[in-house]
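Q: Please design a sequence for this.
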């Protein structure tokens, strides 16, 4: 009887330890508690779910708020940069209109509140999006993920796009989703870039071939869009300070 009781106690202890380890494994990869993901890129691109998943003016806490995504029905690009909301729309092949307003919606959107940043000098060999992705991944290997980040400084060259899907267009593939998309080239511009990093959200808020989703806005706020290509001149990286 004594041996039987000991076996039962050891089994129960093992189960408890297993549960604790399982809990630790589940929570160790937690994201920041104030980061929210709404909708999914793949549902927009593959299933044609173009309508609103979130109205930006319903986000109550705008202090240190950062976020990005496309406008509903893919008629523009959205960016929230430190509590200020921007909407960009195509005006012509070479011009766009950028407005400041929160009364806009998105089919998918990712956002977070960050009030403290850690500034990091980028090494001189970090010049492209691919360099940046590798650097951020290696630098934050022990950080909670996903997370928001930003870059401030001069870009030597960048290509951004603004979605401009014709009204009534049905979407069932990325090619169909990008009809009307207009690309804009920037050179030697002072900019801010807001980005979100994740190794586990491809097709949710990053593309299938990237850990990054970034939107760029120029210092004079006249141009803003989804960042496709980047050549860094002199920029500083900012990561959440926690």
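A: Design:
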């Amino acid at each position: 009887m004594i041996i039987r009781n000991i076996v039962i106690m050891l089994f129960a202890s093992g189960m408890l330890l297993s549960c604790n380890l399982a809990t630790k494994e589940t929570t160790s990869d937690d994201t920041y508690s104030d980061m929210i993901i709404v909708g999914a890129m793949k549902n927009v691109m593959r299933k044609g779910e173009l309508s609103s998943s979130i109205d930006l003016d319903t986000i109550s806490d705008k202090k240190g708020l950062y976020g990005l995504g496309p406008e509903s029905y893919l008629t523009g690009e959205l960016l929230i940069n430190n509590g200020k909301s921007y909407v960009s729309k195509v005006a012509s092949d070479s011009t766009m209109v950028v407005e400041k307003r929160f009364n806009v919606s998105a089919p998918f959107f990712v956002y977070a509140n960050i009030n403290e940043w850690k500034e990091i000098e980028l090494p001189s060999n970090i010049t492209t999006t691919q360099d940046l992705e590798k650097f951020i991944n290696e630098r934050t290997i022990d950080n909670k993920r996903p997370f928001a980040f930003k870059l401030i400084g001069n870009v030597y060259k960048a290509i951004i796009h603004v979605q401009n899907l014709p009204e009534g267009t049905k979407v069932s593939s990325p090619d169909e989703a990008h009809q009307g998309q207009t690309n804009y080239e920037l050179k030697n511009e002072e900019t801010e870039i807001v980005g979100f990093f994740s190794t586990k959200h491809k097709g949710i808020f990053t593309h299938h071939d990237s850990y990054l989703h970034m939107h760029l806005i120029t210092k004079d706020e006249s141009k803003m869009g989804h960042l496709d290509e980047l050549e860094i001149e002199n920029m500083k990286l900012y990561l959440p300070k926690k």
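Q: Thanks. Anything notable?
A: The longest strand covers residues 224-240. The first helix runs from residue 2 to 27.
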